[in-house]
């Protein structure tokens, strides 16, 4: 598919060549996806050349807009790209958002109201559910691209408890059947990325079977490796096989791999051994070679323990590529530079992360943007209605 998002070997080679010529400060900034609220009314992006920006919203009013309309969101992303025009990589930043639909929707006003994951999962026939999930993801990707968004932090790959117990994720998940969830996850990944938007699986190693909200406290996923291998791991493995661009690591303890001290997002055992590698202590790894990304570093399990600089360094040491929403992104850059200069963080690890992120930026920059006319089009509304009707039986 000509408009698909595909990171090629040529992208990786070009990215490595560009990164080799960057200053340590520019490398450090390039692995940060900063909070849009801190950038849209400042010149921070022009100063620091962050590798990405995430657009947040309060009840659909995106930061930098008065009403969150497609025209306003497109204007915000255009301003961000203009601010980044002096980036030494020559590439625009990744621009992301959380457009899961259902309970988590950043772009509301004037955009198609597609059904969320639990609604799509409610379609009784699995083949129909898979087909419509892929079509919805592809249509949603076109609306995101039209306003300048290149990364969607979706789909949620967390699997709910099979016994019906409480979950922090709830209706954001496709359900409690790992194998069926996996088919829907793969369909969503394929739909988003064939239409040109980077998809992100979240929240590795899994938040579906914990009841604690990781925004405010640090939960523990207290399951054995055997249980994890047949539950949480199943949709992630299939999503990785489908070619997902990114996997987000959540703020959760996973004692099964011997780490009872720090969240998975800054755990070398989880990020490097379990997600990037072949596994650890009986938990089978994912051998993921794409971009690893933290959950928001503004969340309490990180921000309540580490400074912005410490969090950034700990995440990179663990094997993360992209650092999402440091409390103080400029301080995160300074912390990374200081850690490289002192030898606390190997320069090669920063180079690896910067190359991974930049390769995705190169691929994303090739994808053409459709016009705003695709947003809330007759065809998209009809697709949304068809999916909802199928879910209703």
Question: Could you please describe the fold and organization of this structure?
Answer:
The chain is an alpha/beta fold and 393 residues long. The chain has a single domain, classed as Glycoside hydrolase, family 3, N-terminal domain (TIM Barrel). The protein has helices spanning 9-20, 24-30, 36-39, 44-48, 70-83, 117-121, 126-146, 178-194, 225-230, 233-241, 268-275, 300-303, 308-318, 329-342, 347-366, 378-392, and strands at residues 32-35, 52-55, 57-58, 61-62, 94-97, 99-101, 104-105, 151-152, 198-204, 246-249, 279-280, 283-284, 291-294, 323-324. The strands form 4 sheets. The chain has an 8-stranded parallel beta sheet with strand order 13-10-9-8-5-2-1-14. Strands 3-4 form a two-stranded antiparallel ribbon. A two-stranded antiparallel sheet has the order 6-7. A hairpin with a 2-residue loop joins β6 (99-101) and β7. α2 (24-30) crosses α14 (329-342), α2 crosses α15 and α8 (178-194) runs parallel beside α10.
Please provide a brief summary of the model.
By secondary structure, this protein is of the alpha/beta class. It is built from 16 helices and 14 strands. An 8-stranded parallel beta sheet has the order 13-10-9-8-5-2-1-14. Strands 3-4 form a two-stranded antiparallel sheet.
According to CATH, what is the topology?
TIM Barrel
Provide a count of the helices: 16
In the sheet with the most strands, the strands line up as: 13-10-9-8-5-2-1-14
Order of helices and strands: HHEHHEEEHEEEHHEHEHHEHEEEHHEHHH
Oligomer: single chain
Largest beta-sheet characterization: 8 strands, parallel
Taking pLDDT < 50 over at least 5 consecutive residues as the criterion, the unreliable ranges are: none
Specify the overall morphology: globular
Number of domains: 1
Give the amount of beta strand, in percent: 5-15%
Which structural class fits the helix and strand makeup? alpha/beta
Query: Roughly how many Å is the radius of gyration?
Result: 19 Å
The strand count comes to 14
CATH architectural grouping: Alpha-Beta Barrel
